[in-house]
Recover the amino acids of this structure.
């Protein structure tokens, strides 16, 4: 089998194993939501967690429908916190569908309630998604403006995960524009933030992203360096998905370097991890 085709097979196996685990957990959460013997808070918490399991990019209508249930439930039981979370979730669904005016309306309503309750974390999340949707529309200067507002709040409340996510989106805008030097500067800023975060998953991802930039400009030795660092960290965590991803990335680099023997070694390693994930 050609190395590139083998690599694609491994990617499919890894993705399939992750999807199966998510679906099983989602079923359990839906059962809790339907259990009327549980408290209102337990039920709405389960529904909120269930929403996170929906592959909303593929099923935005499902996201909207379930979030509408959440909104009705929260309003009838005066659960204000879940009202603005439901509005936020509905906005995400409309954003994926490309119905941006509806998305922006729901985000604005979510932000208003969040501001009244002083939930800075929710405000920054809504601003962040406002930026993502503006980016989808191609309104990049406005997108960067919303990202900057979100980033400011994230830094003020020391929400490191938020800072990390916002920086990666800003970097991705520059990457998509072909401004690889600017993208690298932002990724390196993100790297400094991630190195202070006890959650090493962020650092693992950032190292991969920097490797991706170097791969894009055909600086394969540098790409190799960052991919290897990411792989080492994924083993330290440990993160089976991160390990499989690291092997896939290294396989890709060696394909570009036309070292097919090493490419196969790494894709073989990724395949073994994928099989273990499927078995579990």
């Amino acid at each position: 089998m050609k190395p590139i085709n083998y690599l694609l097979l491994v990617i499919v196996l890894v993705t399939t194993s992750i999807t199966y685990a998510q679906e099983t957990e989602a079923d359990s959460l839906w059962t809790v939501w339907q259990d009327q013997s549980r408290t209102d808070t337990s039920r709405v918490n389960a529904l909120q967690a269930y929403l996170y399991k929906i592959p909303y990019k593929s099923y935005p209508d499902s996201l909207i429908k379930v979030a509408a249930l959440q909104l009705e439930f929260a309003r009838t039981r005066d659960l204000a916190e879940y009202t603005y979370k439901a509005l936020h979730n509905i906005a995400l669904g409309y954003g994926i569908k490309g119905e941006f005016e509806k998305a922006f309306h729901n985000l604005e309503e979510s932000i208003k309630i969040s501001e009244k309750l002083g939930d800075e974390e929710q405000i920054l999340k809504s601003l962040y998604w406002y930026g993502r949707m503006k980016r989808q529309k191609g309104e990049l200067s406005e997108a960067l403006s919303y990202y900057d507002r979100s980033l400011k709040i994230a830094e003020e409340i020391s929400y490191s995960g938020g800072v990390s996510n916002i920086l990666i989106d800003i970097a991705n805008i520059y990457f998509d524009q072909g401004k690889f030097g600017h993208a690298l500067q932002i990724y390196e800023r993100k790297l400094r933030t991630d190195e202070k975060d006890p959650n090493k998953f962020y650092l693992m991802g950032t190292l991969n992203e920097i490797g991706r930039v170097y791969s894009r400009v055909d600086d394969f030795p540098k790409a190799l360096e960052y991919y290897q660092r990411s792989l080492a960290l994924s083993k330290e965590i440990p993160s089976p998905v991160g390990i499989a991803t690291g092997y896939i990335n290294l396989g890709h680099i060696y394909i570009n370097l036309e070292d097919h023997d090493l490419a196969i070694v790494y894709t073989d390693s990724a395949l073994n991890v994928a099989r273990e994930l499927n078995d579990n």
Notes: The two ends are 27 Å apart (CA to CA). Confidence is low (pLDDT under 50) at residues 16-21. The chain has 13 helices and no strands.
